[in-house]
Amino acid sequence: MGLLQVSFLSAIICFAVSAQGQSYVPGEVIVKMKSQSSKSSTHKFIGKLSLNNKMALKRSWKRFKMHQFKIGKDQNVDQVVNDLLLDPDVEYAEPNYIFKKQSVGIEGEPMSFSEVEEELSSMNSGFAAGFNQTGADINADEAWNIISNLSNKPVVAVIDSGVDYSHYVFADSGAIWTNTDEIPGNGIDDDGNGYVDDVRGWNFVNNSNDPMDDDNHGTHVAGIVLGMTQNILKATLDPAVIEIMPLKFLDSQGVGTTSDALEALNYAINNGANVLNNSWGGGSYSQALHDVVSQAYSNGITFIAAAGNSANNNDTQPTYPAGYSVPNVISIAATSSSDNLASFSNFGASSVHVGSPGISILSTLPNDSFGYSSGTSMAAPFASGLAALLIREKGSINGYQVKGVLYDYSQGVSGLSGKVASQSRIDAFQALDFVQKNDIDTYQPDYTGSTRGLASAGGGGAAAAGGCGLVRSLTSGGQGGPKGPTGKTLFFLGLLFAPVLLMNILRIRKKKEIESRRQFPRYKMDSEVRISVGEKQLVGQMSSISLGGARIDTDALLEKGGIVTLNIASPEGDQQIQVEGRVVWSEEKKAYGVQFCDARDEAVAAIGGWTQKLSKT
Ligand code: CA
Predict the structure, then answer these.
(1) 166-169: long-range contacts at Cβ-Cβ below 8 A with a sequence spacing of 24 or more?
(2) Which is more confident, 235 or 377?
(3) Ligand 1 centre from 296 Cα, in Å?
(4) How far apart are CA 273 and CA 264, in angstroms?
(5) Ligand 1 mean position to 183 CA, how many Å?
(6) How far is the CA of 198 from the centre of ligand 1 (A)?
(7) Which of 341, 297, 503, 488 is nearest to 406 (CA)?
(8) Which of 39, 82, 113, 477 has the fewest CB atoms within 10 Å distance of its CB?
(9) What is the pLDDT of residues 410-428, one digit of tens each?
(10) Which residues neighbour 333 within 8 Å (Cβ) at sequence distance 6 or greater?
């Protein structure tokens, strides 16, 4: 595709957003076939759609049974989606939604390195990793001092507008990922991954092997990822301890499509990325995007996402991919140098997980320059760089465990109270120090995936997308007692018993892994449970519990697949935990099985403690 065509595509996309008020590509749909479909029926299905519906296949993701189609000129996306949803071969169909970068623009003129040096000298020493450490100090340089002497370099995929890989910061440090299985420039797909001469990532906007940044967003983001792991604001760069895989799917306006995002994520998953940095988002719930994020989860990959810049509460008005309830998704809010939530930053006491600096961040810009930018786009890559440092120490640490470490080994700040689940801002030293000194297990909960949010055109799916969050609080002291501590405070209290608590958690999980691969042992329990479904409050009786879920007896009607919040009293009634779960089976108005979505360590430890006095079912 030439330059003209690229600009033309941007024009079409912008038109779709502004003129129609709908955020999807006109004339395109994404369809997922039901999983029992065989190869021959896939061919038949595609043939049927092209014959009957004048739809032309544009791209397929065979692993996911997903296909992207162009629809007929006289057809309407909403109508085609609705028709496809009635097709017995179709699991879901949705528009090709549009997503955007999550920065609020570059501030001031790009600077040369000598101008940066002047800038640094006029401020008190503390400028490292591209942000002012005299205020909110994420302890990056303290973390650099303890980085182990290891040779492995975790790969962070920067899924963005591309990266100026020729910038001396990346070139001199050797930070750009190299596909060593590909011989450059021979016109052959040497490694058979479907991409010819993909030596340093891919450009999914114009389908080329050159992921050069034609915006500036991706280069700025990539500089922050690298800047979290070493000082990038100095004349002579140290060799990088991580690698950056540039995957361009946002165009020169910072706008991209679901189909290109699917392709970029799929590439990252298949080509060895350990962390996916997603400084982009939008309000439309794409089931297809969710399913690819779930695949990343299955592969143990960490998925970092910008929470968004609309000053919204994501708990009630989610943005995606940050809002997916997949347990490896870490949604990042932006904080100020005084550790308050940035005025533009989205928040969410359960759906946004941790804060990170996001105002006036100094990082790389194309053409060997530097500049300031703000946004949750800038906050997310700090977390991605940190995640890569953790993975470098313990290669087996998965996305779910990285989330737990970022959640617990971060700096509790009052400015994030009630704003993000951990009520904390990242702290590189605390997190790295913990991972270095402790064995991290490989446990991650089963995640069967959301079947809700079968999105239709016009954003119908967004309303159905609250999703599972983290356990919000853990209270003790029973009813009428003093207000219990939050999960975070309890965690700090728990530090006194940390070795015991941690050992207990690890032991429980190890025991669980030995006893059976996927199932947790279940225990008989007779305890009252209060169930919240949206605004509704119900009461039931818990008849069994495990570390992964519970059976609830109630004559109330709960929707299968629905998300519920359970307030569970301990067997003695002296302790209460809150956990979110999904109704996975039901005997209507009688009994329901609830699978916990993402139980926090505190809750896991509490349930583990209870079960020691209970008998197995
Ligand atoms: Ca290749």
Answers:
(1) 167/219, 167/223, 167/364, 167/366, 167/367, 167/368, 168/237, 168/368, 169/223, 169/226, 169/232, 169/237, 169/364
(2) 377
(3) 20
(4) 11
(5) 9
(6) 5
(7) 488
(8) 39
(9) 999 999 999 999 999 999 9
(10) 307, 341, 342, 345, 346, 347, 352, 354, 355, 356, 358, 376, 379, 416, 419, 420
Instruction: Summarize pLDDT for 268-314 with one digit per residue, the tens.
Output: 999 999 999 999 999 999 999 999 999 999 999 999 999 999 999 99
Determine the Cα angle at 16 with ends 77 and 219, to 5°.
Answer: 120
CB under 8 Å to 74, separation ≥6 — which residues? none
How confident is the model over 523-547, as a mean pLDDT? 78
Distance (Å) from CA 177 to ligand 1 centroid: 14
Is pLDDT above 60 for 487? no
Token output for 520: 């947790």
CA angle 228, 234, 235 (to 5 degrees): 140
Average pLDDT, the chain: 82
- The answer, yes or no, to whether residue 476 has pLDDT greater than 90, is no
Q: What SS3 string covers 417-441?
A: CCCECCCEEECHHHHHHHHHHCCCC
The number of beta carbons lying within 10 Å of the beta carbon of residue 449 is 17
What pLDDT score does 20 carry? 38
Centroid of ligand 1 to alpha carbon of 201 (angstroms)? 9
- As a whole number of angstroms, the distance between CA 595 and CA 85 comes to 27
pLDDT value, residue 558: 78
415 DSSP assignment: G
Nearest-angstrom CA–CA distance, 357 and 379: 5
509, two tokens: 């999980």
Place of tokens 């760069």: 237
pLDDT per residue as tens digits for the range 361-379: 999 999 999 999 999 999 9
Report d(CA 233, CA 345) in Å as an integer: 26
Residue with tokens 């025991």: 511
Pair 131, 232: CB distance under 8 Å: no
What mean pLDDT is predicted for residues 248-252? 98
**Distance (Å, whole) CA 203 – CA 200:** 10
**What is the set of active-site residues?**
160, 217, 377
Measure 262 CA to ligand 1 centroid, in angstroms.
Answer: 18
Instruction: Tell me how far apart the alpha carbons of residues 442 and 452 are, in angstroms, rounded to a whole number.
Output: 28
* Contact status, residue 392 vs residue 130, Cβ threshold 8 Å: no
- Give the pTM: 0.73
Q: What is the 3-state secondary structure (H, E, C) of 548-572?
A: CEEEEECCCCCCCCCEEEEEEECCC
For 252-309, the DSSP string reads TTSEEEHHHHHHHHHHHHHTT-SEEEE-EEBS---HHHHHHHHHHHHTT-EEEEE--S
Distance, CA 286 to ligand 1 centroid (Å)? Answer: 28
Reference 486, options 389, 416, 394, 559; nearest CA is: 416
What separation in angstroms does the CA of 3 have from each of 10, 34, 251, 252, 308?
11, 38, 11, 11, 30
Could you read off the pLDDT of 133-175 as tens digits, one per residue? Answer: 556 889 998 999 999 999 999 999 999 999 999 999 999 999 9
Q: Is the separation of the CB atoms in 278 and 306 below 8 Å?
A: yes
Domains and CATH numbers, the chain: 16-98 (3.30.70.80), 106-499 (3.40.50.200), 523-611 (2.40.10.220)
Helix or strand holding residue 487 (H, E) = helix 487-494
